User: Which sequence fits this backbone?
């Protein structure tokens, strides 16, 4: 299954992770979201993942996002 990984700025706790997870999970095509506060990363699994919508969801949650890390 395709996946994308992003570096997220501003996350510091599990509440932050939950906010990001909730917003990203609502993007069409997303089947799973793994947020790691320790590494400030978000890994998204799904089909036909739209980079712009994923980035916008992270920003909507209140955090910054840097260029995706290709996995």
Assistant:
């Amino acid at each position: 299954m395709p996946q994308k990984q992003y570096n997220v700025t501003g996350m510091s706790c599990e509440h932050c992770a939950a906010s990001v997870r909730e917003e990203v999970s609502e993007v069409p095509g997303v089947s799973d979201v793994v947020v790691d506060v320790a590494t400030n990363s978000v890994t998204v699994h799904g089909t036909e993942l739209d980079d712009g919508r994923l980035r916008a969801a992270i920003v909507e949650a209140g955090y910054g996002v840097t260029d995706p890390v290709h996995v």
Observations:
- The mean pLDDT is 93.
- Helices lie at 14-25, 51-60.
- The radius of gyration is 10 Å.
- The beta strands are 3-9, 30-36, 41-46, 64-65.
